[in-house]
What we know:
Blueprint: E1 3-13, E2 16-27, E3 31-35, H1 42-50, E4 55-64, E5 67-68, H2 74-80, E6 82-85, E7 92-96, H3 97-107, H4 117-130, E8 141-142, H5 148-162, E9 166-170, H6 178-191, E10 197-201, E11 215-220, E12 223-228, H7 230-239, H8 242-248, H9 267-276
Parallel strand pairs: 3-10, 3-11, 6-9, 9-10
Antiparallel strand pairs: 1-2, 1-4, 4-5, 7-8, 11-12
Amino acid sequence: MPTLIIKNLYAEVEGKEILKGVDLTINGGETHAIMGPNGTGKSTLASVIMGHPRYTVTKGTITLDGEDVLDMETDERARAGLFLAMQAPAEVPGVTNSDFIKTAMNARLNDDKKLSLFKFIRAYDKAVKELKMNEDLPHRYLNEGFSGGEKKRNEILQMKMLKPRIAILDEIDSGLDIDALKIVGENVTEMKNKNLGLLLITHYQRLLDYISAEHVHVMMQGRIVKSGSTELMKKIDEQGYDWIKEELGIDDERVIPEDEERIILGSCATREALEKE
Protein backbone atom coordinates (compact mmCIF):
# COMPACT_ATOMS: atom_id res chain seq x y z
CA MET A 1 0.00 0.00 0.00
CA PRO A 2 1.68 3.26 -1.13
CA THR A 3 2.24 6.28 1.09
CA LEU A 4 3.13 9.77 -0.16
CA ILE A 5 4.29 12.11 2.61
CA ILE A 6 4.82 15.85 2.07
CA LYS A 7 6.38 17.70 5.01
CA ASN A 8 6.87 21.46 5.42
CA LEU A 9 7.28 21.94 1.67
CA TYR A 10 8.45 25.31 0.37
CA ALA A 11 8.97 26.01 -3.34
CA GLU A 12 9.62 29.01 -5.54
CA VAL A 13 9.68 29.94 -9.22
CA GLU A 14 12.00 32.63 -10.54
CA GLY A 15 12.67 33.81 -7.00
CA LYS A 16 8.98 34.09 -6.03
CA GLU A 17 7.90 31.82 -3.19
CA ILE A 18 4.72 29.92 -4.09
CA LEU A 19 4.47 27.03 -1.62
CA LYS A 20 4.90 28.08 1.99
CA GLY A 21 4.93 25.03 4.22
CA VAL A 22 2.64 22.34 2.76
CA ASP A 23 1.98 19.25 4.88
CA LEU A 24 0.01 16.36 3.41
CA THR A 25 -0.03 12.55 3.69
CA ILE A 26 -1.82 10.34 1.16
CA ASN A 27 -2.12 6.60 1.74
CA GLY A 28 -3.25 3.92 -0.68
CA GLY A 29 -7.02 3.56 -0.64
CA GLU A 30 -7.53 7.23 0.31
CA THR A 31 -8.92 10.05 -1.82
CA HIS A 32 -7.97 13.62 -0.93
CA ALA A 33 -9.42 16.75 -2.50
CA ILE A 34 -7.67 20.14 -2.44
CA MET A 35 -9.73 23.28 -3.00
CA GLY A 36 -8.92 26.96 -2.82
CA PRO A 37 -9.18 30.28 -4.68
CA ASN A 38 -7.24 30.80 -7.91
CA GLY A 39 -3.56 31.58 -7.52
CA THR A 40 -3.04 29.87 -4.15
CA GLY A 41 -0.57 27.19 -5.29
CA LYS A 42 -2.72 24.11 -5.94
CA SER A 43 -1.40 23.34 -9.43
CA THR A 44 2.09 24.38 -8.32
CA LEU A 45 1.96 21.63 -5.70
CA ALA A 46 1.14 19.07 -8.41
CA SER A 47 4.01 20.29 -10.60
CA VAL A 48 6.48 20.21 -7.72
CA ILE A 49 5.50 16.66 -6.79
CA MET A 50 6.12 15.57 -10.39
CA GLY A 51 9.40 17.50 -10.68
CA HIS A 52 8.77 20.38 -13.07
CA PRO A 53 12.23 21.87 -13.67
CA ARG A 54 11.10 25.47 -13.37
CA TYR A 55 10.25 25.07 -9.68
CA THR A 56 12.89 25.04 -6.95
CA VAL A 57 12.19 23.34 -3.64
CA THR A 58 13.84 25.44 -0.93
CA LYS A 59 12.73 23.50 2.13
CA GLY A 60 10.87 20.36 3.16
CA THR A 61 10.58 16.78 1.93
CA ILE A 62 8.48 14.56 -0.33
CA THR A 63 8.76 10.80 0.13
CA LEU A 64 7.04 7.84 -1.54
CA ASP A 65 7.23 4.73 0.62
CA GLY A 66 10.24 6.21 2.36
CA GLU A 67 12.10 7.00 -0.88
CA ASP A 68 13.20 10.60 -1.47
CA VAL A 69 11.06 11.86 -4.36
CA LEU A 70 12.98 15.15 -4.60
CA ASP A 71 16.11 13.18 -5.43
CA MET A 72 14.42 11.63 -8.50
CA GLU A 73 14.16 12.97 -12.05
CA THR A 74 10.64 13.37 -13.45
CA ASP A 75 10.78 10.09 -15.38
CA GLU A 76 11.99 8.28 -12.27
CA ARG A 77 9.03 9.64 -10.32
CA ALA A 78 6.67 8.35 -12.99
CA ARG A 79 8.32 4.91 -12.96
CA ALA A 80 8.04 4.87 -9.16
CA GLY A 81 4.26 5.17 -9.55
CA LEU A 82 3.46 8.90 -9.47
CA PHE A 83 1.00 10.15 -12.09
CA LEU A 84 -0.37 13.57 -13.00
CA ALA A 85 -3.49 14.16 -15.09
CA MET A 86 -2.76 17.68 -16.27
CA GLN A 87 -5.10 20.64 -16.26
CA ALA A 88 -3.94 21.60 -19.75
CA PRO A 89 -2.50 18.52 -21.53
CA ALA A 90 0.10 19.28 -24.19
CA GLU A 91 -0.34 18.37 -27.86
CA VAL A 92 2.44 16.22 -29.35
CA PRO A 93 2.36 16.17 -33.16
CA GLY A 94 3.89 13.10 -34.81
CA VAL A 95 3.42 10.77 -31.82
CA THR A 96 0.30 8.59 -31.91
CA ASN A 97 -1.76 8.17 -28.80
CA SER A 98 -1.25 4.41 -28.65
CA ASP A 99 2.53 4.64 -29.20
CA PHE A 100 2.82 7.21 -26.42
CA ILE A 101 1.02 5.02 -23.88
CA LYS A 102 2.78 1.83 -25.00
CA THR A 103 6.18 3.54 -24.64
CA ALA A 104 5.26 4.79 -21.18
CA MET A 105 4.21 1.30 -20.12
CA ASN A 106 7.40 -0.29 -21.49
CA ALA A 107 9.49 2.31 -19.66
CA ARG A 108 8.17 0.99 -16.34
CA LEU A 109 9.22 -2.61 -17.09
CA ASN A 110 12.59 -4.14 -16.28
CA ASP A 111 15.09 -4.25 -19.13
CA ASP A 112 14.57 -8.00 -19.59
CA LYS A 113 10.81 -7.65 -19.99
CA LYS A 114 8.70 -6.39 -22.89
CA LEU A 115 5.04 -5.50 -23.06
CA SER A 116 2.86 -8.06 -24.85
CA LEU A 117 1.38 -6.32 -27.90
CA PHE A 118 -1.73 -8.52 -27.80
CA LYS A 119 -2.39 -7.77 -24.13
CA PHE A 120 -1.74 -4.07 -24.70
CA ILE A 121 -4.22 -3.82 -27.60
CA ARG A 122 -6.87 -5.72 -25.66
CA ALA A 123 -6.48 -3.53 -22.55
CA TYR A 124 -6.27 -0.34 -24.63
CA ASP A 125 -9.44 -1.10 -26.62
CA LYS A 126 -11.28 -1.98 -23.41
CA ALA A 127 -10.26 1.31 -21.75
CA VAL A 128 -11.27 3.32 -24.85
CA LYS A 129 -14.72 1.73 -24.79
CA GLU A 130 -15.15 2.30 -21.07
CA LEU A 131 -14.33 5.99 -21.54
CA LYS A 132 -16.61 6.15 -24.61
CA MET A 133 -13.88 7.57 -26.80
CA ASN A 134 -13.66 7.39 -30.60
CA GLU A 135 -12.34 4.15 -32.10
CA ASP A 136 -9.75 6.03 -34.21
CA LEU A 137 -8.03 7.26 -31.02
CA PRO A 138 -4.98 4.92 -31.28
CA HIS A 139 -3.97 6.44 -34.64
CA ARG A 140 -4.47 10.10 -33.73
CA TYR A 141 -1.51 12.22 -32.64
CA LEU A 142 -1.39 12.77 -28.90
CA ASN A 143 -4.02 15.39 -28.00
CA GLU A 144 -3.64 17.12 -31.40
CA GLY A 145 -7.04 18.46 -32.46
CA PHE A 146 -8.68 16.96 -29.37
CA SER A 147 -11.53 18.83 -27.72
CA GLY A 148 -11.09 19.85 -24.09
CA GLY A 149 -13.22 16.91 -22.97
CA GLU A 150 -11.28 14.45 -25.14
CA LYS A 151 -7.99 15.64 -23.65
CA LYS A 152 -9.28 15.10 -20.12
CA ARG A 153 -10.61 11.64 -20.89
CA ASN A 154 -7.30 10.82 -22.57
CA GLU A 155 -5.52 11.63 -19.30
CA ILE A 156 -7.76 9.11 -17.53
CA LEU A 157 -7.09 6.59 -20.30
CA GLN A 158 -3.36 6.92 -19.55
CA MET A 159 -4.08 6.47 -15.85
CA LYS A 160 -6.12 3.31 -16.52
CA MET A 161 -3.32 1.81 -18.60
CA LEU A 162 -0.38 2.82 -16.37
CA LYS A 163 -2.05 1.88 -13.05
CA PRO A 164 -0.15 4.38 -10.88
CA ARG A 165 0.29 4.13 -7.12
CA ILE A 166 -0.37 7.83 -6.41
CA ALA A 167 -2.46 9.78 -8.96
CA ILE A 168 -2.92 13.55 -9.00
CA LEU A 169 -5.88 14.84 -11.01
CA ASP A 170 -5.44 18.58 -11.58
CA GLU A 171 -8.86 20.11 -12.28
CA ILE A 172 -9.86 17.10 -14.35
CA ASP A 173 -13.45 18.36 -14.20
CA SER A 174 -12.78 21.68 -15.94
CA GLY A 175 -14.08 21.75 -19.51
CA LEU A 176 -16.20 18.63 -19.07
CA ASP A 177 -19.94 18.61 -19.62
CA ILE A 178 -22.15 16.63 -17.25
CA ASP A 179 -22.10 13.44 -19.35
CA ALA A 180 -18.31 13.47 -19.76
CA LEU A 181 -17.81 14.22 -16.07
CA LYS A 182 -19.96 11.23 -15.18
CA ILE A 183 -17.91 8.97 -17.48
CA VAL A 184 -14.63 10.22 -16.01
CA GLY A 185 -15.92 9.95 -12.46
CA GLU A 186 -17.17 6.41 -12.92
CA ASN A 187 -13.89 5.26 -14.48
CA VAL A 188 -11.78 6.81 -11.72
CA THR A 189 -14.04 5.33 -9.05
CA GLU A 190 -13.68 1.87 -10.60
CA MET A 191 -9.89 2.18 -10.25
CA LYS A 192 -9.98 3.02 -6.54
CA ASN A 193 -8.33 0.36 -4.37
CA LYS A 194 -5.87 0.00 -1.51
CA ASN A 195 -2.92 0.22 -3.94
CA LEU A 196 -3.96 3.65 -5.29
CA GLY A 197 -3.91 6.97 -3.49
CA LEU A 198 -5.78 9.85 -5.15
CA LEU A 199 -5.30 13.62 -4.94
CA LEU A 200 -8.03 15.66 -6.63
CA ILE A 201 -7.44 19.37 -7.27
CA THR A 202 -10.77 21.05 -7.96
CA HIS A 203 -12.88 24.16 -7.55
CA TYR A 204 -16.27 22.51 -7.49
CA GLN A 205 -18.23 20.08 -5.37
CA ARG A 206 -19.70 18.52 -8.52
CA LEU A 207 -16.55 16.41 -9.00
CA LEU A 208 -17.12 14.77 -5.63
CA ASP A 209 -20.62 13.83 -6.73
CA TYR A 210 -18.87 11.26 -8.94
CA ILE A 211 -15.57 10.61 -7.10
CA SER A 212 -16.01 10.41 -3.34
CA ALA A 213 -13.25 11.90 -1.17
CA GLU A 214 -12.68 11.07 2.48
CA HIS A 215 -10.44 14.09 3.06
CA VAL A 216 -10.98 17.68 1.90
CA HIS A 217 -8.29 20.37 2.26
CA VAL A 218 -8.39 24.11 1.63
CA MET A 219 -5.26 25.77 0.27
CA MET A 220 -4.60 29.49 0.63
CA GLN A 221 -1.44 31.52 0.25
CA GLY A 222 0.67 28.51 -0.54
CA ARG A 223 -0.28 26.21 2.31
CA ILE A 224 -3.13 24.01 3.53
CA VAL A 225 -5.05 26.06 6.08
CA LYS A 226 -8.04 23.83 6.82
CA SER A 227 -8.95 20.14 6.46
CA GLY A 228 -12.15 18.20 6.97
CA SER A 229 -14.68 15.86 5.38
CA THR A 230 -17.00 16.39 2.42
CA GLU A 231 -19.09 18.61 4.69
CA LEU A 232 -16.32 21.19 4.40
CA MET A 233 -16.63 21.16 0.62
CA LYS A 234 -20.41 21.52 0.81
CA LYS A 235 -20.06 24.57 3.04
CA ILE A 236 -17.54 26.12 0.64
CA ASP A 237 -19.87 25.41 -2.28
CA GLU A 238 -22.66 27.26 -0.46
CA GLN A 239 -20.74 30.10 1.20
CA GLY A 240 -17.44 30.47 -0.66
CA TYR A 241 -14.12 31.05 1.10
CA ASP A 242 -14.75 34.33 2.93
CA TRP A 243 -15.77 32.60 6.17
CA ILE A 244 -12.45 30.70 6.22
CA LYS A 245 -10.47 33.88 5.57
CA GLU A 246 -12.34 35.63 8.38
CA GLU A 247 -11.95 32.67 10.73
CA LEU A 248 -8.21 32.41 10.16
CA GLY A 249 -7.45 36.08 9.54
CA ILE A 250 -6.27 35.54 5.96
CA ASP A 251 -6.21 38.39 3.43
CA ASP A 252 -6.84 38.07 -0.32
CA GLU A 253 -3.23 38.25 -1.50
CA ARG A 254 -2.50 35.79 -4.32
CA VAL A 255 0.76 33.85 -4.33
CA ILE A 256 0.66 33.51 -8.15
CA PRO A 257 0.05 36.69 -10.22
CA GLU A 258 -2.96 36.58 -12.55
CA ASP A 259 -0.87 37.45 -15.59
CA GLU A 260 1.74 34.75 -14.98
CA GLU A 261 1.98 32.42 -17.96
CA ARG A 262 0.53 28.97 -17.27
CA ILE A 263 3.26 26.38 -16.88
CA ILE A 264 2.46 23.08 -18.59
CA LEU A 265 4.30 20.05 -17.23
CA GLY A 266 4.25 18.37 -20.63
CA SER A 267 6.04 21.21 -22.39
CA CYS A 268 9.45 19.53 -22.08
CA ALA A 269 8.12 16.28 -23.52
CA THR A 270 6.53 18.20 -26.39
CA ARG A 271 9.78 19.91 -27.30
CA GLU A 272 11.67 16.62 -27.22
CA ALA A 273 9.10 14.98 -29.51
CA LEU A 274 9.27 17.85 -31.99
CA GLU A 275 13.07 17.84 -32.01
CA LYS A 276 13.04 14.17 -33.01
CA GLU A 277 10.91 14.91 -36.09
